[in-house]
Model the fold of this input.
Amino acid sequence: MRWLIFLTAAAPIFSEDHAIYLSLVDVDLNAQKITIKVFSDDLEDCLKNFDPNYTLLKDSSRNQEKLENYFQQRLLLAINGESVIFSFSGASVENDAHFLVFSFQYPKSISTVKVKADFFMELFPTQSNVINLKNGQEQLFLRLTKGESEGQVDF
Done:
């Protein structure tokens, strides 16, 4: 009986159409690296919406430019008031998630970081992007949504 209750309660968690729209973004300021964890199906849907000529992610070499263009428009990073340009470094897949890695260069000391992250929100209005900003041993978080897609932290 307990298993039946568990399976019934857990059914929405395992459904094909997930109800949680969430990404995790790690910005390591010292390593000058951004790692984004997103659901693979959401990434596919947003890239198809962004570029009608988009083909499946399995051909990542052809899609590298599309991924980079999409995230450069939807994820903006400014350090000490200066915009940061990042480039696609690679991707990996684990279960139903894609891990996208971008690199950037910023040689100066860091006091203020501003982030705008509205990716996926054009299709999924309940999307939340959780930003983890690390500067040495200091770690600060932002939760960005469609209603508040920008945030700033001071180190």
User: Anything to note?
Assistant: The longest helix spans residues 60-74. DSSP finds three helices and ten strands in the chain.
